[in-house]
Amino acid sequence: MISQGTIVAIATPSGAGALGIIRLSGPEAQQILAPYFKAKSGKKLLDLAPKETAFGTLQQEDGRLLDEVLLCCFNAPNSFTGENVVELSCHGSSYILQEVVQLCLRNGAVPAQAGEFTLRAFLNKKMDLSQAEAVADLIASDSKAAHTVALQQMRGGYSKEIQELRQELLNFASLLALELDFSEEDVEFADRKELLELLEQLLKKIESLVASFSYGSVLKTGIPVAIAGKPNAGKSSLLNAFLNEDKAIVSDIAGTTRDSIEDTLVIDGVRFRFIDTAGIRDTEDSIEAMGVARALAQVKKAQLLLYVFDCSTASPDEVISAIKAIDRPELNVLAIGNKTDLVTAAQRAKFENIQPNYPLHFISTRDTATIKALQQILVADVKHTTTGTDIVVTNARHYSALNTAASAIKTTRNSLIEGVSEDLVSVDLQVAINALGEVTGAFSTDELLGNIFANFCIGK
Length: 460
Ligand SMILES: Nc1nc2c(ncn2[C@@H]2O[C@H](COP(=O)(O)OP(=O)(O)OP(=O)(O)O)[C@@H](O)[C@H]2O)c(=O)[nH]1
Ligand SMILES: [Mg+2]
Hints:
Bound molecules: guanosine-5'-triphosphate, magnesium ion
Structural class: alpha/beta
CATH topology of the domain at 222-363: Rossmann fold
Number of helices: 15
Number of strands: 13
Order of helices and strands: EEHEEEEHEHHHHHEHEEHEHEHEHHHH
Strand order of the largest sheet: 3-4-5-6-2-1-7
Largest sheet: 7 strands, mixed
Radius of gyration: 29 Å
Distance between the termini: 16 Å
CATH architecture of the domain at 222-363: 3-Layer(aba) Sandwich
CATH superfamily of the domain at 222-363: P-loop containing nucleotide triphosphate hydrolases
Helix content: 40-55%
């Protein structure tokens, strides 16, 4: 799967742009371009100092001018991939870029596979696997929170710590193996108390990482917020007000929304996924009943429920019992009293007894200030539930490897406490060591690497 030659790819997105960047990496990166690049300074490409930029022209084999370019060479191992690298900024025409790539291919380069630059960086130990994966996340990040987490992971994040703890486990594993070799002499090289302490420390770390995953994964896709309530409460109006567009149909006919409608919105750097649902009521209409079932299913999957009620028609007791009917553990619920423009302050006050049961906020979807205030409450709510988790796992592969490691560590710990024989302890310890190694890439297979890097874009 991994070629040894010099690879080439366009590093910028397809379509016309002011500039387009082409990247070559491999032993021949400089040699391939050298005959075709004429620096304005007169300096030969092969004489350029590492990281020196040179402006000049690029020509085809027949001398035809292709473009004026800016070129920069990096020498192994001081480059992104750890190999010789040439980066070429051309004008962003897709014709020019294709012609330059073809020129390189005719002169010995091979087309890069998806993610191959980053894969080479990993293989040349410029970064570990979790850092390499973070490169893809960083490119895909489209909100401040997702960007922060990806950047942190790319710069080492938790993988360094895991690597160190794994190394300590490895040391213990080899001491245990040594004991097995000397089993007749009944000696103990590995201090059981120290090993237990290390296991506890590791378990605590891993469990907090595992716990951060639900937050981490939603950072990428958006925190799911279900908007539910009785028909005509103003749920679709609220979705539209959040998005500031007429996404969902709004009408005074009860039962307007049948299917769930969703869209994402980034508020203060946090991505939310708002899901407007069909009004919940008993109905004879079979299509509407399907909509109600979907609404309840959405609430089940959501992290936050905005239960919307109409202040001009609802009663506090009815709201509380309706929420209780759909509430579940771990669901964060906000009761949202809508249509405040239709009620007096006194009418509004009677809803205050919802407060001891559920946090209560009032809005009118016709009053932008109240919608903005609600958005701030949502952001504060997310930030509140996630303070302290400064390191966040966003990657499903890491999550599953960490889970495997945690359960193997628990088994090892219990076996140690129960005084189970070394050989069995060693087996579980090895499972934990391998699982941790999968996170950092210390333990990886070609298949695993293939899967990970196939999801990259070409040129990365
Ligand atoms: N006065 C007033 N009317 C509102 C407000 N919000 C929504 N409405 C009106 O209430 C009616 C129902 O609004 P929708 O947003 O369609 O309600 P829904 O909860 O999505 O209803 P279903 O889809 O049928 O479940 C519409 O006529 C809206 O114009 C508000 O803040 N004040
Ligand atoms: Mg609706």
